[in-house]
Design a protein that fits this description.
With 578 residues, the protein is an alpha+beta fold. The chain is 40% helix and 10% strand.
């Protein structure tokens, strides 16, 4: 144990030793550039870091909800399942875990550059003279090699650590550093991260309500017209990031690898470019698009530096960044290893018996490979079980809210039925309201029935601690996606899922309604005061009931105005987000 602690301290000391002296840079000052030079689309949540020459660089937080434990991470599926994806873009499983606490709320994540690095920012860091303001300076830097991009990130990190250390995000008290993104970090952010639904995350492109040309500079006269464009002119994505697609193709940190039907191929290759560029056709844009280029030009022997290659930085941190962190990781690993060993007790015992009986080293090696494959399969099953549990809890929360909304619609219709005579409603209108009421009652009962079934399945398959951990991840996801209206129903579903015994149906309904009423704003009219009255929904296949004709005794009087419909008749489970 003492040797283990000494080794940890030596590793951590290595992180603290000063790096070799970087080339001299212009001094780092507080940002003095006009904001349009480095942040043409300022937004809430921007992190602004100073860079040399009075410049700045802007970053956005990318949440990675996945649990609170030191080894917890977020497992996602990246790539493409489309025909023709092949060994370059086929589906693959990746895991992400951001090192930094969220600036507001729970969870952790990483910081991604809001824009691609510009020519002015590059010159401020890499050249001896500070750049003069110019329109060309706001173009993304292109025509630089991967090696130069890595040198740029190292030099900028050293400058900020030396002059503005307190401005960098910190993980466990240790400031971060700037680097190129990994492929998983880039594609996760490009797809929308935790801000989008699973369906939108898996789609070919991220949510672009106004079309690709509002978000990406691509080939053609309607877009880039064959030239790179200044940063920030187009609309951001859901994370507030600009130009993730088109404009400059962005270099990744790690080398290219092929996909061997779901896992990385063994050969490490060249440089990875993601997102396409200003010469990419609009029809070719997709989140899975990845291109490999050789790191050196075969003709000249020099590092490859294409006129379409650019970069975007992220802020990262060391994984074993402090002694307490390293010890927490070791404890978490031992706990997870013991749990896995318990789950695999019988297969492991059989393999251990075989190992003792076999003298041939080749057979022993084969048994060791089977053990490794067994451990990997168990890890995959555990990840899958956690994902299924989160989906069950989210579905239960949605169904609970649907039950509450159905009850609200029923209350509104019942009020109309009870006052039908006062409102001078015709028998036909009252009958239509009664039919609507029964239809909504059936919807409520179906939602409540499904809610109970999901709870029963959760209780059968998941332990209370697993449900609690899943709730923490979902709470972070709901916050990231702006689904605050689901929070009380999430907590209720988790409480019901752990209750012993499962509450009876009437109690489930009563507690769902109580949770909804406690969280809902005070009841008011279904429509704004100056909006037209809401007409009740018409049952499918039934003609609308016309208002009664004016009484013959009063031919001059206008026809009575149809009464307003029930509050909330047209409500949906998820209100539209602004």
């Amino acid at each position: 144990m003492m040797v283990h602690r000494l080794a940890l301290r030596l590793v951590l000391l290595a992180f603290a030793l000063p790096a070799s002296a970087a080339p001299a840079s212009p001094p780092v000052w507080p940002p003095s550039w006009e904001e349009a030079r480095y942040n043409p689309r300022p937004a809430s949540g921007d992190l602004v870091l100073p860079i040399p020459c009075g410049g700045a660089m802007v970053f956005r937080f990318v949440a990675t909800p996945g649990g609170d434990g030191p080894l917890d991470d977020r497992v996602v599926v990246l790539g493409s399942g489309e025909a023709g994806a092949g060994p370059v873009e086929f589906l693959r499983q990746e895991a992400l875990a951001g090192p930094f606490p969220a600036p507001h709320g729970e969870g952790r994540g990483y910081w991604s550059g809001k824009y691609e690095v510009t020519r002015e920012q590059w010159q401020a860091v890499m050249e001896d003279r500070c750049p003069e303001p110019s329109a060309a300076g706001r173009l993304p830097i292109t025509g630089v090699s991967w090696f130069a991009a890595v040198a740029f990130s190292a030099r900028l990190s050293a400058a900020i650590l030396a002059h503005a250390r307190d401005r960098l995000p910190a993980a466990d008290g240790v400031p971060g550093f700037l680097r190129l993104p990994t492929e998983a970090e880039w594609e996760y952010a490009a797809r929308g991260g935790a801000m989008v639904s699973e369906v939108d995350f898996a789609a070919r492109t991220p949510p672009w309500p106004e079309g690709a040309l509002r978000h990406a500079w691509v080939a053609g006269p309607r877009s880039s017209d064959g030239r790179p464009q200044p940063i920030g002119l187009l609309a951001p994505d859901v994370l507030g990031l600009h130009d993730m697609f088109g404009n400059a193709a962005e270099m990744m940190l790690e080398p290219f690898r092929l996909n061997r039907v779901g896992r990385p191929h063994g050969q490490a290759g060249g440089i990875i470019l993601r997102g396409g560029d200003f010469r990419t056709p609009e029809a070719a844009l997709r989140s899975s698009l990845r291109v490999e280029i050789p790191p050196f030009d075969p003709a000249s022997g020099q590092p490859t530096a294409l006129p379409t290659m650019g970069l975007r930085l992220v802020i990262g941190a060391a994984a074993t960044r402090s002694l307490p962190r390293a010890e927490a990781l070791a404890r978490a690993f031992e706990t997870e290893a013991r749990a896995r060993e318990a789950a695999l007790a019988e297969p492991r015992a059989a393999l251990e018996l075989l190992r003792r009986m076999v003298a041939d080293d080749r057979l022993r090696l084969g048994i060791a490979r089977v053990e490794a494959a067994l451990a990997a399969a168990e890890r995959a099953r555990a990840d899958e079980s956690r994902a299924v549990l989160r989906a069950q809890i989210e579905a239960a929360a949605v169904l609970a809210r649907a039950t509450f909304l159905s009850q609200r619609r029923m209350d509104g219709l019942q009020a109309l039925i009870d006052t039908a005579e006062v409102m001078r409603a015709t028998p036909e209108m009252r009958a239509e309201w009664v039919r609507l009421l029964e239809g909504i009652r059936a919807e409520r009962e179906a939602s409540l029935e499904a809610y109970g079934r999901i709870l029963a399945e959760m209780r059968r398959r998941a332990e209370a601690e697993e449900v609690t951990a899943a709730r923490s991840v979902l709470a972070q996801e709901f916050a990231a996606r702006g689904l605050a209206e689901l929070a009380p129903f999430l907590d209720l579903a988790v409480r019901h899922g752990r209750a012993e015994p499962l509450p009876e149906r009437a109690r489930l309904l009563a507690e769902i309604l109580a949770a909804g009423r406690a969280a809902a704003p005070p009841a008011g009219p279904a429509n704004a005061p100056d909006s037209p009255p809401h007409v009740p929904e018409r049952a499918a296949g039934r003609p609308a009931v016309p208002p009664p004709p004016p009484p013959a005794a009063r031919p001059a009087a206008p026809a009575p105005r149809p009464p307003p419909g029930p509050p909330g008749t047209g409500a949906t489970v998820f209100p539209a987000r602004p």
